[in-house]
Structure formats: C-alpha cells, structure tokens
Amino acid sequence: MKRERRDRIICFCMIFTGAALSGGFLYTVWIYVPRDDIRYLLAGLYGGLCVLGLLGNFRQRRQICRFADELCGTLDDLTAGQKPEGDFFYEDTLSSKVQGKLLQFYDLMSEERRLSRQEKQVIQELVSDISHQVKTPIANLQMFSGILRSRDLSEEKRAEFLEMEAGQVDKLDFLLQSLIKMSRLETGTFTMHMERADLYDTIAQALSGIWAKAEAKNLDLAVECGSGITARHDPKWTAEALFNILDNAVKYTPAGGGIRISVRPWQFYTRVDIKDTGGGIPEEHCHEIFKRFWRGEEAASKEGVGLGLYLAQEIITKQRGYISVRSEVGSGSTFSVYLLT
Question: Is the model's pTM score more than 0.90?
C-alpha cells in the first residue's frame, strides 16, 4: 500500500512538472512572440506534449520492469519450493495481486502433491497387505499338493488333506471376493440404490448368512424389530454390512452364548443394535477394529482377513450413516448402526 501511494505521488509530481513546464513555455511564447506567428505557439504546445510523453513512457517502462522483476523473483522462489517473503495479500497493487494468485496456485499444487504421495503410500500398503494375506493360503496349498503327490497315503489321510486344501481355496476365494467389494467401494464403481425399505427384511437377509454357523455353536439369536419400521438404505448393501458385523459376533461369541438384534427408530436416524456375549474389545482397540486388515491378538486363532468391519463401515458411511461400538472386556460388545430415517 505504501509503494502504491509513493508511485501515485511520483506520477502526480511528474505530470505537474510537465504541465508547469508546458504552461510556462506557452506563456513565454504568448508574451514575447508576435500574435501572427502561430508556428511558435504550435511548436511550444508540441514541445510540452513531447515532454509529457517522454516522462510517461519512462514511468511506464520503469513500472513494467519492476513488475517483471518481482514476478520472476516470486516464480524463482516457488520453483525452488520456497514461499517468497512479503505481505502480498495485504497490498493493493497489481504485482501483489498476481503474486497472491501465484501463491494460491502454489498452495493448491502442494496439497495435490501431498494427497498424491498419501494415495501412493496407501496403495503400497494395500499391495503389501494383500501379498501378506495371500501368501499363507498359497503356501499351504503348495504344501498339501506336494504331500498328496509325493506320498502314498491312505484314503482317510488323503481325504483329510483334500479337505484342508479345499479350506485354503475357500479362504482365497473369500479374500478375493472381499477385495473386489473393497475396490468397488473405494473407487465408487457402483451406485447405492437408496430407498425407504423395511428393515425387518434387510435384517432377515443378513441373518440368513450366519444362521448355520450360529446353530453349530448353539448360539441364541434374538431379533427385536417391530413390523413396518423403515429407513432410507440400500437393502442389498446394508444386509452385507449387517452380515459382516453378525459374522464377527458369531466368530467371537463362545458356544452357548447369545446375539441380540434390536431396532430403535429415532427422529433423524434409525438405530440397529447388535449385541453379543463375546469376550469384548479393549477400549484402545475400539477404533482400530474398523481399519483395513486390522486384527487383534485375540483374533489370531480365528478365521478371517480383517476386512469385515472395514467393509461394513464403508457401506454405511456411503449411505450417510455411521457405526459406533461399545464394549467391555469379558462382557461382550454392542455395535450400533445408524441409518437415515
């Protein structure tokens, strides 16, 4: 602002000086030159205009050179990865405005580079996690295949190894299916078909996937959902999310325990609680369980790859809902799914 005021004062002084010189020259011509010789008068006027033109041209060239120098200095600093010093956003000059826009562009590009590096790191971690998850079943398949080819086994032993081999194939298939779902969710290659649908049907669809496992462990399944309770959701994908939570509950609830599902309509959300009588989750791990491929020490002996809760959260979040968890070690866990009413 000070520079702008100084430039205006200098410009005004130059114009005033040029006008004064031209006026003095014209006055001298008017007094001392005969009236009939108009050539001298025109010459004086032309001389004054030339003086003003030269002064204005000099002033303009000086401003352009300084403007170019300032922009080049700013670009040199930004190219070197440094922000130039100066209060560009607080000065009301042309160069300050252009420099301010360059700094905004620089900040935008810096953020884009940061996000790009972050996404690259996420992809690297994902590839590493997938490689780690796939390595074990593939190694087991190779081992079982080698045993079956190289040894003379009884029919009973051969059937046992074939069953274990089929189990590893199922684990690989489950992992690949989970990765496909995760990829579709993260890349947005599918569309949520949100509709006001009956939650009882959605819960029934989710229960159908874990019923056999629950029966095998003699678990007591209870559903508390009044007829006609609806919420805005995608029935297919919401059933997938609820299935993942229920499958987790069945997996970590000891035989003879129980799982209770209850539905509570609220003003803006409808809450679906899934409560189990399992071992519970330590408080410090309640947020980590939703991370991709995360598995606690207590889960090491259980089947799974650590994608179920991650997928459940992604599905519900994309429907503008959310999941919370309350748990106490030794007293079970309660997962609450909130869907738009």
Answer: no
